[in-house]
Design brief:
Two copies of one chain form a homodimer.
Chain A (H helix, E strand, L loop, with lengths): L3 H13 L2 H7 L4 H15 L4 E4 L2 E4 L1 H28 L4 E7 L4 H15 L3 E6 L5 H7 L5 E4 L8 E16 L9 E2 L8 E4 L8 H7 L8 E4 L3 H9 L4 E5 H8 L4 E6 L4 E10 L6 H12 L2
Parallel strand pairs in A: 3-4, 3-5, 7-11, 8-9, 8-10
Antiparallel strand pairs in A: 1-2, 5-12, 6-10, 6-11, 6-12
Helix pairs in contact in A: 1-2, 1-4, 2-3, 5-10
Chain A binds a DNA duplex (30 and 30 nucleotides) through helix 3.
Chain lengths: 294, 294
DNA sequence: TGATAAACATGAATTTTGTTCATGAATTAA
DNA sequence: TTAATTCATGAACAAAATTCATGTTTATCA
């Protein structure tokens, strides 16, 4: 079997010319290399080098192994380097799960400085999970979960990273636009746009319409924030989004946001991590960065 | 140090799920794999897997090694396969040196069936050598030398592969074209085209003009056979080439060839090989193929 | 819920492998 | 011819890998 040592030996011979010097460079005796290759020659039943005068010349087989070594050894060395970084906590991978559609913009602001700071951390953002977001975290499909509704379990810690108000968005020309807040029955003739999520998990239903036994005229799913807001701005309907996100878009679009009822709907975004994984530098720092980012 | 066995172990775990089954697949004990990875973990100072229930889950470091294994192990296996072929004489490389300009066409005819028959032999044809053709053969720059003038030495065997006549080529409209052969003094007013080789090594000088103390009006070098014959066909001069080669071109060009003097110049093409390298199947077969090809 | 099975870890004993040392043979250079 | 260089080889020794026996934890099932 071709082992790493064989690749090292042939590379050293190519680099230093003689077996003796190659042995020195590998901190082994000339005899060790000679025995080592002799054994391999026995296994593959073909010579690897031939003596020419008092030097060696690689055979075709030897050249093949040498070519392989050129390709393979650097990869082994590189992986050892990465492993070393992992050991020091300077490298690793962070797979982020998102269970909060509008948080994407916020996440981009978290990620940007983080990637600068941790150049060797691989990052992967996923949005759909085979067994639900919680399952994904527990089954190591992801390492971090970003969600507005944490499902507390003993194995997962949730850290709140920021508070915001969930607000209704209407066109600037809408009659509701003049109000400071909206009441449930005022939406009965409206078209509601939302991300494609079960209605039960939408706060506008669970915390606003359902308790008041009210409803909307029609409920339509739209995948992206941009298109949803285009529709709202065009007066085609209304939607519910985080206040800070609406503020952002309101700069360039004719839209307005108002409070749900008199008290409004207060929300928090949580970062969930497996509680066995505290003390991982780059993970802790991700959470710190998340708390810092508004 | 990352060794092949570590790559094999992680691959087997990925493939079979448990350490015990992985051990079976590698024909080793579960304990052996456990010890082996434990040692590596000590060296790289980071865990490779973690126990989850009674199974294992690779850490980030483990995943890295596994990814490396996916890339590297197939290469090792492939090289072992090639080495095995080399051992059986089914693979290797044949570097052919050419010291005979017009032989190129002939070589193509030899090579064609040969490549079919030996699909795993690498072939390389070289035409210029750092220390001369003989030196190239002795220094293992090439494995086979094709030449019309063998320089006999104890270390090299020359095998004649075919005989031919060296002939003068003239335009069909040339006054000499009516003759069967040409005499030295008849060339004194002619322009002679030849490949760029020292005149001493041109048979037309060494075997025809010089012995008769004759010469030509002008001697010009031309690199390729095609252009040389175009010039001759256009009546711009004459040249000397193997009879069989002229016959080939005469089918489509207004040229004619005639004998040098009454006896003509007889030539042989030789294949030279290092005499330590008999009994190499694919080399022997190359020579056999060369003898067969006219 | 307790018994059983499955899976991995660990320490000691053993076997295998790798390494060195001493030496020989071949080649080159002085 | 002599000395130096280089690789090969066998024997002794050292180190590493492997197994064996056993322990611990976790999952399964009656």
């Amino acid at each position: 079997m071709l082992e790493r040592i064989h690749l090292e030996i042939l590379t050293a011979i190519k680099a230093h010319g003689t077996l003796t010097k190659a042995a020195d460079s590998l901190h082994l005796s000339q005899s060790a290399l000679s025995h080592s290759i002799k054994k391999l020659e026995g296994q593959i039943a073909t010579p690897i080098w031939e003596k020419e005068g008092r030097n060696l010349r690689l055979t075709d087989a030897g050249e093949h192994i040498q070519t392989l070594a050129n390709r393979v050894l650097p990869q082994l060395v590189h992986t050892e380097l990465v492993l070393n970084q992992i050991a020091k906590g300077e490298a690793g991978s962070l797979r982020i799960g998102m269970e909060c559609h509008p948080c994407y913009q916020w996440l981009l602001r978290v990620i940007h400085p983080y990637l600068q700071k941790w150049p060797n951390i691989d990052m992967d953002v996923k949005q759909a999970f085979q067994f639900g977001a919680l399952g994904a975290l527990l089954s190591y499909e992801i390492d971090v979960l970003i969600t507005p509704d944490p499902l507390f379990t003993p194995k997962i810690d949730y850290i709140p990273v920021f508070d915001y108000e969930h607000r209704l968005v209407v066109a600037a020309s809408h009659t509701l636009a003049k109000q400071d807040n909206v009441l449930p029955h005022q939406l009965s003739e409206e078209v509601l746009f939302s991300y494609p999520v079960e209605p039960l998990r939408l706060d506008i239903f669970s915390q606003f319409l359902n308790p008041a036994k009210c409803s909307v005229k029609k409920h339509k799913n739209i995948e992206t924030t941009e298109i949803m807001l285009q529709m709202v701005a065009a007066g085609r309907g209304v939607c519910a989004l985080p206040g800070w996100l609406v503020d952002e878009y309101a700069k360039s679009m004719p839209i307005k946001s108002l409070r749900f009822g008199e008290k409004g709907i207060s929300k928090q975004i949580f970062v969930g991590v497996r509680n066995t994984e505290q003390d991982i530098d780059y993970l802790d720092d991700f959470i710190a960065q998340a708390k810092k980012t508004k």
